[in-house]
Design a protein that fits this description.
30% strand; single chain; mainly beta; 101 residues
């Protein structure tokens, strides 16, 4: 899904990031079956993804800091980003995981 990550630090917006990839069809894995050519959020099969580095120095203050990380996904029905909600639950006990380090 097309997602937007919203990063706030100490109450200020530090970044709004989307890593949508619509170039997966250009991957040299052509002639394969499957969904390798479909657009994805943040990666394409067979591609090297270096990750994303954000400089948030200007929002950091001495002592304690508060980091808020939000996720919104594109809704075709409303035509805007909406907060992510998994109404149906995860299939096969899949889990959502966020690692910040």
């Amino acid at each position: 899904c097309h997602a937007a990550y919203r990063i706030r630090l100490n109450g200020a917006t530090a970044a709004n990031v989307t890593q949508w990839r619509d170039d997966c069809k250009d991957n040299p894995t052509s002639e394969q079956f499957g969904t390798w050519d479909e657009s994805r959020n943040g990666w394409c099969p067979g591609s090297v993804e270096p990750g994303l580095f954000l400089d948030v120095t200007e929002w950091v203050r001495p002592g304690a800091n508060r980091l808020d990380f939000g996720l919104a996904v594109w809704s075709n029905s409303t035509g805007r980003y909406e907060p992510y909600t998994d109404f149906g639950g995860f299939a096969l006990q899949d889990e959502a995981l966020l690692v910040v380090g």
